Amino acid sequence: MPKVYFLCTGNACRSQMAEGFAKRLLGQQWQVRSAGLEAHGLNPFATKVMAEKGIDISRQQSKVIDNAALQQADLIVTLCGDARDRCPWTPPSVRRLHWPLQDPAAATGSPAEVLQEFRNVRDAIEIRVRALAASADNKQDQN
After folding, report:
1. pTM of the predicted model, to two decimals?
2. Catalytic residue among 25, 80, 101, 125
């Protein structure tokens, strides 16, 4: 079973949303995890915008990177430059992708403007996870 690990700084927003989409779109054929360099807690805006897509991430928890899981991953996806730059060493066999997305938790403005930034980032993550799922499906079809 392939293993994907989504990483960002605090495992509060972007990596949590990516985990939620991946669990839905990659299904039971993949082991999906997320973590951060630190654990900042699950951002309630992330939970809210994912619920708008019918995905409940409210039971997910903010976690720090588990080195054993990192070493066993087939794919690591970093969602911010901080995670990309500070991610611990992995074997050359571990494929890495970087999705440079703005941190929606850093958004300023009215609550509606902040919520819209979370939606924008959520939608960008969904597009990328859908492409990842399509790529995985194509690889399975070729085998």
Report:
1. 0.92
2. 80
